[in-house]
Structures are given as structure tokens and as C-alpha cells.
Design goal:
By secondary structure, this protein is an all-alpha fold. It has one domain. It is built from 5 helices and no strands. The longest helix has 37 residues. It is elongated and about 60 Å long. InterPro entries: SLC43A3. Keywords: Membrane, Transmembrane, Transmembrane helix.
């Protein structure tokens, strides 16, 4: 996350010389990060539903396997959004910056919700 905001400044310097436009991007980025607070519970809710479904399994091996598998799709989605965000970095346009901000917002929300939940599942003891 720190790397994104630090490199966003360098990216903006390549795209625009107007301080007002660069300031607007920073404002949009900050506002979008607040939206991440609303998105994070959705990813966590999806993982919790998958875990509760896995906990209903009677066989301990299958139960543990299903608990670990519960994190696949949320972690895959998180990785996919990060990849999209990094792909946008190849383009020096304002549109690419806007799109990367959207992807970074979703990535950050999922990372916070899914990453900690996965650690809790994977290293239970």
C-alpha cells in the first residue's frame, strides 16, 4: 500500500504537470480508501460463510481441507485485483490512474478482510 501511494506521485508527475489535477487524484484516492471500509466486510462475510459450511463436515480431514479451500476464491480475487492494478501502471494516462485507484481500493479491502481470515484458518493452533 505504501508503495502504491509513493509511486502514484511519480506516476502523476509523468501524466500531468498541473498541481490541481494531481491534487484531485490524491483526493479521489483518499475518498476511495474510505469505500474500502465498506467493501472489506463483504469479502470477510463470503469467507465466513465458506468456513461455516466447512465446519458442518463430520470427517475431520475433510473439514480441515474445506476450511483451507474456503480461502481460495477470495485470495484469488485479491491477487487478481492487484494484478489489474499493476497492469494499469504500464499506461501513462489519466484513465489508467482512475482505473488503478478502483482496483487498489478493492484490493486493499479484500486484503484486509481475507488475509487475516486466511491466517486464522490456516494457522488455527
Amino acid at each position: 500500500m505504501v508503495l502504491y501511494i509513493g509511486s502514484l506521485n511519480l506516476w502523476l508527475q509523468r501524466v500531468t504537470d498541473d498541481i490541481q489535477i494531481a491534487g484531485n487524484f490524491a483526493k479521489i484516492y483518499g475518498t476511495a480508501q474510505i469505500a474500502a471500509l465498506l467493501l472489506a466486510p463483504m469479502a470477510g462475510f463470503f469467507m465466513d460463510c465458506s468456513i461455516q459450511k466447512a465446519d458442518k463436515e463430520t470427517d475431520p480431514f475433510i473439514r480441515k481441507l474445506n476450511r483451507v479451500r474456503a480461502g481460495f476464491w477470495p485470495l484469488f480475487t485479491t491477487s487478481l485485483f492487484l494484478s489489474f492494478c499493476l497492469f494499469c501502471r504500464f499506461f501513462d494516462t489519466e484513465t489508467a490512474i482512475y482505473i488503478s485507484i478502483v482496483f487498489m481500493t478493492i484490493f486493499r479491502a479484500f486484503l484486509v478482510a481475507v488475509g487475516t481470515a486466511y491466517l486464522r484458518i490456516r494457522y488455527k493452533n
